[in-house]
Write a structure and sequence with these properties.
This protein has 449 residues and is of the alpha+beta class. It has two domains: 248 residues, BirA Bifunctional Protein, domain 2 (2-Layer Sandwich); 100 residues, Rossmann fold, CATH 3.40.50. It has 19 helices and 16 strands. The strands form three sheets. The chain has an eight-stranded mixed beta sheet. It has a five-stranded mixed beta sheet with strand order 13-12-14-15-16, sandwiched between helices. The longest helix is centred in the N-terminal third of the chain and has 20 residues. The C terminus is likely disordered. Bound molecules: histidyl-adenosine monophosphate.
Length: 449
């Protein structure tokens, strides 16, 4: 049976990369004081209607909404900012020292037309900073995001920045748009006519080429910006300049969710084609109060993990895809247990080792070893057993030697030291905070013995 359209299976060759990206996010975000929040995949439909907005594409066309057995309308989350805000209100997180910093990662669902970089089940890594009005915190959020992407090796990314203004700005701009579009209503699509009544800002989001022509002469948000909004935007820009973050002010930046106020941003990757937005984010100063919570401002972003992985620099991918370095082959009649015992000893020293369980000829086992990408093959035959030794074949160099059984673990450990260090480096860095001091240190000490 095929999988559901727009969903994907991730096999180990890919999931290893995803896991490494997620690890990096956890490490970088925790350095800034973010803690992980896990909210349910299911929420009341009402939550997204009230926050993301009824007239948005997400709520209007893309939600996976259904009734449960008691007739309650539930929705598979299309995004997580609303859910994080709900949890913030429910758990009275506003009573904690502010700002509260939360990150999340997991699957999200939107009923969109699937194509490269666009799926119906997709994954986000997001972060939300709640309880600070900025503009310094806006810049810190963006700096953290850029730092994370740099750690993954990205160089060709562009931060697009803009402001949608505060409440006062939005009301003034809304009025200006209605005034501009009203006489042109005939030329608008039925969808945009509806938007003109409900939320004229959404017309700016149109993909219709004739409507995009009309937009050229439409009033610009800049002209409606309140003094407070201008001041905030100038503050964000100067803080970003100070922190050395490069960005481009993009007056055409329209975010597809209604809750935004003031700062909005996206990060695009030139290599991705049409679906090139890897990250979207912005400030949402009204959302918590609109949900019946405290009147606190907030800002955050979400990274599209599927797209991020699709445009990852090759160097990062290569670092993730290391096969277990050692393959152990017991040659009949030597029992597989002899190889399994040696495997355990290697793993105890951090050397990744796989025992070949095939019951066929040695030639076939060697072929499997080559295909697996292992660096070393250890052969345990009758000869080796008699000499209390192991034949160690270096598949890269095409050489082999007989090594005493008591020395083989230490030898391979030394030869693979850099690889082992690389593997545990991430773990150690991730654990430095809050770990009993000896634990990671012991691992490292062993590696260098
Ligand atoms: P968004 O722009 O709707 O923002 O989504 C963020 C990112 O999720 C996009 O830039 C894109 O990379 C990815 N994405 C969205 N839809 C799909 C899809 N169908 N397939 C693959 N990737 C997709 C939000 O969701 C906001 N909650 C972000 C935010 C957090 N704003 C403030 N805090």
């Amino acid at each position: 049976m095929p999988n559901v359209k727009g969903t994907r299976d991730l096999l180990p060759s890919e999931s290893v990369i995803w896991a490494r990206v997620e690890e990096t996010a956890r490490r970088v975000f925790s350095l800034y004081g973010y803690g992980e929040i896990r909210t349910p995949v299911l929420e009341h439909t009402e939550l997204f209607v009230r926050t993301v907005g009824e007239s948005t594409d997400i709520v209007g066309k893309e939600m996976y909404t259904f009734e449960d057995r008691k007739g309650r309308s539930l929705t598979l989350r299309p995004e997580s900012t609303a859910a994080v805000a709900r949890a913030f209100v429910d758990h009275r997180l506003g009573e904690q020292p502010l700002p509260v910093k939360l990150f999340y990662m997991g699957p999200h669902f939107r009923y969109e037309r699937p194509q490269k970089g666009r799926y119906r089940e997709f994954h986000q890594i997001g972060a939300e900073l709640l309880g600070d009005p900025g503009p310094a915190s806006d810049a810190e959020v963006i700096r953290m995001l850029v730092g994370f992407l740099e750690e993954l090796g990205f160089e060709d990314l562009t931060v697009l920045l803009h402001t949608v203004g505060d409440q006062e700005t939005r009301e003034a701009y809304r009025a200006a748009l209605v005034e501009f579009f009203a006489p042109l209503a005939e030329q608008l699509s039925s969808e945009s006519r509806k938007r003109l009544e409900r939320n004229p800002l959404r017309i700016l989001d149109t993909k219709d080429s004739a409507e995009r022509e009309l937009l050229i002469d439409a009033p610009k948000l800049e002209d409606s910006l309140s003094a407070g909004s201008r001041e905030h935007f100038a503050g964000v820009r100067s803080a970003l300049d100070r922190l050395g973050v490069k960005y481009r002010v993009d007056p055409g930046l329209v975010r597809g969710l209604d809750y935004y106020t003031l700062t909005v941003f996206e990060i695009v990757s030139e290599g991705l084609g049409a679906q090139n937005a890897i990250v979207g984010g912005g400030r949402y100063d009204r959302l918590l109060a609109d949900l019946g919570g405290p009147d606190l401002p907030a800002i955050g972003f979400a990274i599209g993990l599927d797209r991020l992985v699709e445009s990852l620099p090759a160097a990062f991918r290569d670092r993730c895809t290391q096969a277990p370095a050692v393959r152990l082959i017991a040659i009949d009649p030597v029992p597989k247990l002899a190889a399994m015992e040696l495997g355990e000893e290697l793993r105890a020293r951090g050397v990744a080792a796989v025992v070949d369980f095939g019951n066929d000829r040695m030639k076939a086992a060697l072929k499997r070893a080559h295909r697996s990408g292992a660096r070393y093959v250890l052969l345990l035959g009758e000869d080796e057993l008699a000499k209390n030794a192991v034949t160690c074949r270096d598949l890269n160099a095409g050489e082999q030697s007989l090594v005493p059984r008591s020395e083989i673990v230490g030898l391979l450990h030394n030869r693979l030291r850099n690889q082992i260090k690389g593997q545990i480096k991430g773990q150690i860095e991730g654990q430095i905070e809050g770990q009993p001091a000896g634990q990671p240190g012991r691992q490292r000490g062993e590696g260098e013995a």
